[in-house]
Design brief:
Length: 293
């Protein structure tokens, strides 16, 4: 088997190259070069990541996440390659999740990042797929692992300094995806050839921000102090942070306290798995331990 890989220098790309080392031949796409695809499988990871600071030029999202995907997918369709795997995001569907996000939810992205990913998805899904080809759109939730903190940076810096966690009054649940599960899911799709379509990627189960903070305390060797500050007071602090140079603002508070639950039932059923190979807590502990080094 051979793989044509875009985004080889990114976090997921580097991990896939290491994971497939000496097992699968990989050709890395060179930036700004033509797409001459001769490999069996295309794994398209290249993209502009979500900018949590909201300072990026919006056009960059569409140039990279949408237009680049169109070019690569068009090249795949006229090639002899048989498998196309595209890394999208749950943010192509929703920024806020009231229940549990599954593949049947109607996309309604709000950010330029989410919209650019959704437009790329729509383009791929609009094309007729030849019978000898398979096309997979992967929607992972937040991917983390050694070497990549995701958006856990703020929480970790607080835990390391022994700062009390003020959001314990929020009982949120969110999904995560450890890089070890991400790698095995991608390999499983290549080897088991499920039906073409859209698949959510996430670890089994959910975890609260409070529990994440407690795990961080264990890793840094400091007992976590949890404060149940009233939600109304937290809201006022967030609004002050929107206009003053405080370390917290409304957006950061939202990210730390919101629910974002993602279903992985479809991909597990497609691969014949009862559960993910690695647990959510083990994945998170591996990531947190790597922060110290």
């Amino acid at each position: 088997m051979s793989i044509y890989l875009t985004g080889a220098s990114g976090f997921v790309g580097k991990n896939l190259i290491s994971y497939f080392k000496n097992k699968i031949e990989i050709k890395k796409h060179v930036r700004d070069s033509e797409f001459l695809i001769k490999e069996n499988t295309v794994i398209h990871l290249a993209g502009k990541a979500h900018d949590l600071k909201n300072i990026s030029n919006k056009d960059e999202y569409y140039e990279v996440n949408t237009e680049l995907t169109k070019q690569i997918f068009d090249s795949f369709l006229i090639s002899d390659s048989s498998v196309f795997i595209m890394l999208s995001s749950v943010k192509a569907v929703a920024d806020n999740v009231l229940g549990i996000l599954n593949e049947h939810c109607e996309p309604n992205p709000k950010t330029h990042y989410g919209k650019s990913k959704f437009l790329a998805e729509r383009y791929v899904l609009s094309k007729k797929i030849p019978q000898n080809k398979r096309v997979y759109i992967l929607r992972p939730c937040m991917i983390h692992g050694p070497g990549n903190k995701g958006n856990l940076n703020l929480l970790y810096s607080m835990a390391k300094k022994g700062i009390p966690f003020p959001f314990a009054s929020f009982k949120n649940e969110r999904s995560l995806l450890g890089i070890d599960n991400a790698k095995e899911l991608i390999l499983g799709m290549i080897e088991k050839s499920p039906e073409s379509g859209v698949y959510n990627f996430s670890d089994d189960g959910y975890i609260s921000s409070t529990k994440i903070y407690e795990l961080m305390g264990e890793v840094v060797g400091k007992k976590s102090t949890l404060w149940k500050v009233p939600k109304s007071a937290i809201s006022i602090i967030g609004k002050l942070g929107d206009i003053l140079p405080l370390p917290i603002d409304s957006l950061k508070i939202k990210k730390l306290t919101e629910n974002y639950r993602v279903s992985n039932q479809k991909i597990k059923k497609a691969l014949g798995w009862d559960s993910m190979p690695h647990s959510l807590s083990d994945n998170l502990k591996n990531t947190l331990k790597s922060f110290n080094s």
